[in-house]
Design a protein that fits this description.
Layout (H helix, E strand, L loop, with lengths): L7 H11 L1 H21 L11 H11 L8 E7 L3 H14 L2 E5 L14 E8 L4 H20 L6 E4 H35 L2 H25 L7 H28 L5 H27 L8 H22 L1 H9 L19 H12 L1 H16 L12 H4 L5 H12 L7 E7 L7 H11 L7 E5 L2 E6 L8 H17 L7 E6 L1 H35 L3 H26 L4 H4 L11 H29 L4 H28 L7 H33 L9 H11 L3
Antiparallel strand pairs: 1-3, 1-4, 2-3, 5-7, 5-8, 6-7
Helix pairs in contact: 1-2, 1-9, 1-11, 2-7, 2-11, 3-18, 4-5, 6-7, 6-8, 6-22, 7-8, 7-10, 8-9, 8-10, 8-22, 9-10, 9-18, 9-21, 12-22, 12-23, 13-19, 13-23, 18-19, 18-21, 19-21, 19-23, 21-22, 21-23, 22-23
Length: 705
């Protein structure tokens, strides 16, 4: 029997180690059940709603019985009229398209420099027929291109570009899956020197991710879960799943001299408690994303909470059961040379010793360096990339879209001006006259598309479709041109949707809600750390260090992706901005994940202080003794997120660099220099008392020893 007052985590781990079969097979049953539910649950994927005015326009279209048709563009040279005529004739004969327009009979289809023309057409059909008709139309374009090789035709449109992007995302996800597991296993082999010990965290993390995807498939009828969310869930799940298992397993190996059962209890009481606190912190932090009111971030919030919660559950239930079952066999299949390093790092002990001798100096130096790294973030511009900017031009469709974009700026990302009326069909002579007045003042070519009772006017915005020039045109369209034309018609409503409008409104809502998200995270982090450590100084120090780390990450993101530093090395072309949602997501996730390290290190320092040593010695020894697991965990997270740098899409590269750099920074400069220096400056004020006996009472109360 365990004595009264035994921590809950220790009780759970103790039960699991005594009921190994129930714990292990119970976990496997949970994973299998989640997979079955996700595989056979009926329904369709929930569709995310754009923010702001773009969301209003999309909602008006969603109320129509049919969907807005897809349009394709083919760039043709004006000095080859035979190719243009052949193309329009072949497309017309294909039976797959309609509403064909070309430069030979429509001056609006001629580029500003007079060198290029644009053939546009609407894809026929619904559902699966559309894809088949796109294939037919593409084959027709290829046939004409083969008959006129000097013409250099280039096809890019709604469906062809989105198809290329979707294909690239799927390939990126597959690459991240195939690369993350071997990389993680190699790092764990170096840490443990044993194939069995290294396999346990990978096995638990893998089953955690599998169960998460199964549960997500069951709830995606109500919560939007896109490909980007899935890929981030995979890497977050692998990172935290392996990290949490690593925390527990390393402490178990340290304490195994006391016996297997005692080692499990000690690991549960110390590392297990840290895992629960850290997991709770991450889960609560990501709920801050709900303040944005954005559907895409709602899906990411739910997926992160699920994968982190399951990782915590596995670490304090099935992991103790597996360790109880294996015992000393956890070190079987040893790899020569690897895993010989002790738990105490001489290097970090030396660094902490040096820093704590002159804490004010080293705090200033480290804080100054982080501030310097953060300075480029003052000029950050939040902007999502256009499809032609997201992927490299080595992708044929993206190269074609870039050529179309150069000749007809903004045509690949037009504004979709949605018109509708509560009184019935909106397509009236008065509305058509107003549309004519509108299109006379905007860039060409424009297209008017009936969608049941609504109308959609496709208007190129110029520029790249999503840069400052396009944003200015979008603002003029919304605030001046539309009110002066369509706005004068009684009973006619309008809203501007489309990729550019969606990205603009998304970023605007993120910026508008950012103070609420940041305030919630800061308050939450303060309260959680205050409750855990019963000290005001601890949360204040931790929050300040996290802010410096996040700021430095923002600065590096701006320097690399907005300003183009190291662009050739990382294989991308800068487009002059940073993803609109990325800074907020990094802030939320990094605040949660960095708590892993801070809570773990502070707990080790507190353990040393409880033995009666001086505060400075406790800081040095706590930092040194925690360095092994913290360094290993940071290497795993950095390695997993660095995989994103090898993917094609620039969005993934941004996420990978931002997360990997911030975690590496947090585990080195922040953990090794700033944290020991700040703790040394606080001294015993950190724990609000100089009495070791009182500290022990607090520790027993909150089960941190």
């Amino acid at each position: 029997m365990l004595p009264a007052g035994t921590p809950v985590v220790e009780r759970v781990a103790r039960w699991s180690s005594r009921h190994r079969a129930a714990a292990i097979f119970g976990w496997l049953a949970l994973v299998a059940l989640a997979w079955v539910i996700g595989t056979f649950a009926p329904g369709t994927d929930a569709r995310s709603s754009p923010a702001g005015d773009a969301g209003t326009g999309q909602a008006a279209l969603d109320r129509q019985e049919s969907r807005e048709p897809f349009w394709e563009n083919v760039l043709v040279p004006l000095d080859s009229p035979a190719a243009t005529t052949d193309l329009m004739t072949t497309l017309s004969a294909s039976g797959a398209v309609a509403d064909i327009r070309g430069p030979l009979d429509d001056p609006a289809q001629v580029s500003a420099d007079g060198r290029s023309g644009l053939v546009t057409f609407r894809l026929l059909g619904t559902g699966a027929e559309i894809r088949a008709n796109l294939a037919t139309a593409t084959a027709a374009v290829d046939t004409v291109a083969s008959r006129h090789p000097a013409a250099r035709l280039a096809q890019a449109g709604d469906l062809s570009v989105s198809g290329a992007v979707d294909k690239s995302i799927k390939e990126d996800i597959k690459r991240s899956e195939t690369r993350s597991l071997p990389l993680t296993l190699l790092i764990l082999l170096a840490v443990f020197g044993s194939l069995v010990a290294a396999a346990i965290p990978v096995l638990l993390a893998g089953t955690t991710v599998l169960a998460t995807f199964g549960l997500l498939s069951a709830v995606d009828n109500w919560i939007p879960v896109n490909s980007a969310t899935s890929s981030m869930t995979l890497l977050i799940g692998m990172a935290v799943g392996v990290d949490y298992s690593l925390f527990f397993l390393r402490r178990f190996r340290e304490e195994r001299a006391h016996g297997v059962d005692a080692a499990i209890r000690i690991a549960a009481r110390t590392s297990g408690h840290v895992i629960v606190v850290s997991g709770l912190t991450v889960a609560l932090c990501v709920t801050g994303l709900l303040f944005t009111g954005l559907d895409n971030l709602r899906g990411l919030t739910v997926s992160t909470i699920l994968v982190v919660g399951l990782a915590v559950l596995a670490s304090v239930t099935v992991l103790p059961a597996m360790l109880s079952l294996l015992g000393a066999r956890v070190d079987r299949v040893r790899i020569p040379v690897l895993g010989k390093r002790g738990t105490r790092s001489r290097f970090w002990a030396g660094v902490a010793s040096t820093v704590t001798r002159r804490p004010a100096l080293w705090s200033g130096v480290a804080a100054g360096l982080l501030t310097l790294l953060a300075l480029p973030a003052l000029g950050i511009r939040l902007q999502d990339p256009a499809p032609v900017e997201s992927l490299p031009r080595s992708v044929p469709v993206i190269n074609a879209a870039a050529r179309v974009q150069e000749a007809f700026p903004g045509v690949t990302m037009p504004a979709h001006v949605v018109l509708w009326s509560d009184r019935g069909p909106v397509d009236t002579p008065a509305v058509r006259t107003a549309i004519g007045a509108l299109t006379a003042q905007v860039p060409n070519p424009t297209v008017v598309v009936p969608v049941d009772n609504a109308l959609v006017v496709r208007i190129p915005l110029g520029g790249t479709g999503n840069n400052e020039a396009a944003d200015r045109t979008l603002t003029t369209l919304r605030e001046t041109l539309l009110p002066q034309t369509i706005g004068r018609l009684d009973g006619v409503h309008f809203a501007v949707a489309g990729r550019t409008a969606e990205a603009h409104d998304f970023t605007a809502q993120v910026l508008d809600r950012a103070p609420y998200v940041f305030g919630f995270i800061l308050l939450l982090a303060f309260v959680l750390l205050l409750v855990v450590f019963r000290s005001v100084a601890v949360p204040v120090v931790s929050i300040l260090l996290n802010l410096l780390s996040v700021g430095a990450s923002y600065g590096v993101l701006t320097l690399v992706f907005q300003d183009g530093f190291l662009a050739p090395l990382l294989g991308f072309t800068p487009y002059g901005g940073v993803l609109g949602w990325l800074p907020m997501f990094l802030f939320v996730l990094l605040f949660g994940l960095s708590t892993d390290y801070h809570v773990f290190i502070l707990s080790r320092i507190r353990e040393r202080r409880l033995t009666g040593v001086s505060m400075r010695e406790a800081i040095v020894e706590g930092t040194a003794s925690s360095s092994g697991v913290v360094t290993s965990a940071a290497l795993i997270m950095t390695g997993v997120f660095s995989i994103f740098l090898s993917l094609a899409a620039i969005e993934y590269k941004m996420l990978g660099l931002g997360m990997a750099f911030a975690i590496l920074l947090d585990a080195t400069l922040v953990r090794g220099v700033l944290l020991p220096a700040a703790l040394a400056l606080c001294g015993d004020r950190l724990w609000r008392t100089n009495s070791v006996e009182t500290l022990k009472d607090q520790s027993r109360t909150f089960h941190l020893s």
